[in-house]
Amino acid sequence: MNKVIGLFPTPFMHVENLLDDGLISALVAHFQEDALLKNAKSGNLSHTQIFKPESSELFMATARLIEPKLGDFSELMFGERLEWFIKEMWVNLLETGGHQAMHNHANSFISGVVYLTPSHTSSNTVFMKGPGGRDFAFGNIHQNVQLGPFNADKWIAPDPSPGDMVLFPSYLLHEVPPNQGELRISLAFNAVPERLDSWGYSVAFSHG
Q1: What is the mean pLDDT of residues 113-141?
Q2: CA 196/CA 208 separation, integer angstroms
Q3: Distance (Å, rounded) from C-alpha 27 to C-alpha 23?
Q4: Going by DSSP bridges, is the β-strand pair 165-169/13-15 parallel, antiparallel, or unpaired?
């Protein structure tokens, strides 16, 4: 009998209904007009400036709901419920035809997205394995291949509903394919722990 064990899996958390309808509506109404920064790779994607959570009562209310989930997620990533702070938040407006190029988030440990409007399936966030080194690479990809978690290069996140949140390690590469639906609004953020400790060799992170 074969027993397959998934070694060193990457954690990904989908939190349903994190925000209620009132907070969602307030965030959309307040920040929709502030997304004036055009994305460098897609003219149909725009962003607000990057904010500290304390810059807005709406962001603060959202952060208070997010932070306990960061503690839950840190138990998966680090084996301990750590104290976290959100160092930055921003809102994204993805119009029809817009896309987000592949990227990850530097200088943070947990990244997340809170969905504020319905999202067309075409624009579900796609996560991918990091590119390999400069060595020669071999692959086995054709019409008869059955893709699964051990051989796929990409994974498409499940359909989100307004108010849902996803959390993932900040190093994980991700992108948003061209949106074939209506305007998609999301709130993104990055978080870092107060401190990491490796047998007394500790590193603290500042709120600055």
Answers
A1: 90
A2: 17
A3: 6
A4: antiparallel
Identity of the residue numbered 49: Q
101 near 175, Cβ under 8 Å?
Answer: yes
Distances (CA, A) of 157 to 74, 116, 146, 202, 204: 20, 16, 19, 34, 32
Q: What 3-state DSSP class applies to 50?
A: coil
pTM over 0.85: yes
| CA 177 to the chain's CA centroid | 14
* Host H or E run for residue 66: helix 57-78
pLDDT tens digit sequence for 59-90: 999 999 999 999 999 999 999 999 999 999 99
- Domains of the chain in sequence order: 13-129+151-195 (2.60.120.620)
Residues with Cβ within 8 Å of residue 78, at least 6 apart in sequence: 193, 196
Between β-strands 100-103 and 173-176, what pairing exists: parallel, antiparallel or unpaired? antiparallel
The phi, psi pair for 108, rounded to 5°, reads -150, 170
